[in-house]
Amino acid sequence: MKKILIVLLSFFLFQTIYAEEEYVRGKILSLEDVITAESGEEEVREVYIYRVKFLSGDRKGEEVSIEYPIYRQEEYNIGAKPGDKVVLYYESNEIGDEKYYISDIDKRSQLLGITGLFILLTVCISKKKGLKALSALGLTVLFVLKVFIPSILLGYSPILFSVLTGIFSTFVTISLMTGFEKKGFVAVIGTLGGVLSAGILSYIAVNSMRLTGYETTDSLSFASYLKGIRLRELISAGVIIGSMGAVMDVAMSMSTAMHEIHQKKADIGRKELFHSAMKMGNDMIGTMVNTLILAYIGGSLLLTVMVYIQREQFPVIRLLNFENIATEILRSLSGSIGILICVPITAYVGSILYGKKTKR
Prior knowledge:
Helix content is about 60%, strand content about 15%.
């Protein structure tokens, strides 16, 4: 979830930065010409002249020739070729002349395709439960877009609204999946206990480590656009929202298991049920902690590779004090601690509600 928040925040920033540029969709029809750069040109190797057809905007259906530079360093080239659907943007100069550029490959069709596959498989495999899960996910994303992001942009506390997001998502998801009964109540309490513990721990750590929220030097260039946003709190907010899914999974699984135990053995004592639940939770901890930490590593794989490359250039004392590295470690460990705390909370609440009080 933290990656989604970064993408959403970047979206709002770029909307402001490029307010004077208009993006439209186009399709490369053919290669008209190739211009070889002069020998003294260091960056550009060739310039392709593409014939491009507008697929959206005021000039939809029209065709235009657009220059597309091929750089000597391959990592700067996006690989556009005839037949590709691309994103175009134009700039107008003072006398009203327009110049179009190929900004990127249009990836929306592929994204829609994989989204459709995800929805189809979810519905086919899980049927009604899958539909409920998708509904809960949709409502959570809507809450993030309509409430969480606008609130932090207005200067409200990201931690406060991440907690509200967590409460909303937990209640919506569990109520749709199980309803407001004992099983759902136990899962809600366990989830909120684990998530809030992770958030509080990360908040204390963020302040004690004096983290600023600017994880990279590039992010400092956006400092003027981030004024009024409590950037430091975004780290803890990301921990709260990012760990919510894994913690909810553990709490719901434990709650369901305790419910089934109670169904089979209604006279089970609280102490016995608590110990049984803890054994189940201990088995879940290993896999879920691995899942969460590996998810953070996977989401920051480029950073992990860069750290490995620089392992001989920087001593450990330097690497661990880079803000982006310290932040990623904090997120993964705080979220994992949230899972650990969720287990005894869920076990205790479930044993009180489902277990039979033993006579002394």
